[in-house]
Amino acid sequence: MLQFADSNLMHSEDAEIYRDPTQEIDAAYLENKRNFESEVIPILLAMLHQWEVDQKAIPIYARSKKLLALRADLLKWIDFGFSGLEQKLAETSDLLPHLAKLENFYRAKNPGVEFRTPNPGKFPALILEGKTVKEWLKRSGDGLAQRIIKHWQNQETVWDAVNKAWDSGLDFQYRLVEANYLYRNRIAEVMFYKANPHVFRFLMFSAVMDGRTSRICRGLNGKVYDINNASIPVPPLHPHCRSRLVPFKLDNR
Predict the structure, then answer these.
(1) Is residue 225 within a helix (H) or strand (E), and if so which, with residue range?
(2) pLDDT of 188-202, one tens digit each?
């Protein structure tokens, strides 16, 4: 009988093949964080300091319009900082290492069974809750600019305003980087399964069921898809998504 990775992903021998690329995720996130803090935050601080000087010469009735211009300038530099992250994530398209790991894993579990290696080509872009990475970064940038202005208007120092706003958005940026790398691996897994329909006839959507499970993943958990189904939902489906697709044996066939 063909041996699959265990559906609950708890067996130690199966855990390695499904282990997420944590070191790669951390490295990409930290590189972006360092670049942003060294190249962009000093500019944001300088802009706010200059605004504090300039506003003394601006009539009170004209300050709200000038504040909108300040926000637009902040956002321009924030977008510039995020463009490096967007480019970095666009380059994470090498599926071959994970495909090789999958093939070696299943060959070892099923000696004598022929497995085909798919041609990875170019995989589809990551879409989370209907938004691309670029759109999520734009939304994050808008929020960062708004938080900087809000903190600063609440009589905080320029330094505190920028750094508190930046710190509050770091978790989401990490999750976006994480989702991009996980999606790359999930796509590789689905490509491998689809290249071997004589082995993998069905895939099951497997969600981590606890108090943090999203409504969409809770609704999909346990659903089984024919391997030839063109509409299989490939996780991650949203930021913080922990779901995945696993091979499934139907009626022990």
Answers:
(1) strand 224-226
(2) 889 999 999 988 899
